[in-house]
Amino acid sequence: MFKSFCCTLPTLFVVSLIMIGCSDKSPTPTAEKGHEEAGHEDHAHEHATVGPHGGDIVELGSEEYHAEIVHEGEATVYILDSSAKAPVAIDAADVTINITHDGKAEQFKLVAKPAASDGAGKSSQFSLADKELIADLSEGHAEVQLVVTINGKQYRGTLEHDHEEGAEHAH
């Protein structure tokens, strides 16, 4: 009996090592988890740089919302959700674009242009047909800040220009 127990014990040990090594659960690296929890910019999701209408994305708040700025024919701002994909209708009558270039500051109010799906008294789209605004947005050298109020809270977002020097803005 002692002999069979001695032979079985090493066999059980080897089998348990194999089972531990073949576990389906892989440990979560603590360094990556800590990096994520620390709030670093390496998010698990990708950030869109071009919106659903082909415009430039502006982050509002800590990614609570996004806005998309399109400037073809007229300047249009679309209010989007945290993923920058779906429209969000807000109860604002207008949004403001502040532009600074060549030492000159300008302010433009884009008025609500509700879509049929936005609901009564709300809009997810704001626009203004102003050649100077469109030129300022297209040149890519101006500082552009969007100001919008959503549910009583004011958000400010900056349009980041990733354009190469001398490159055309593609829409």
TrEMBL record:
<feature type="region of interest" description="Disordered">
    <location>
        <begin position="26"/>
        <end position="54"/>
    </location>
</feature>
<feature type="compositionally biased region" description="Basic and acidic residues">
    <location>
        <begin position="32"/>
        <end position="48"/>
    </location>
</feature>
<protein>
    <submittedName>
        <fullName>Uncharacterized protein</fullName>
    </submittedName>
</protein>
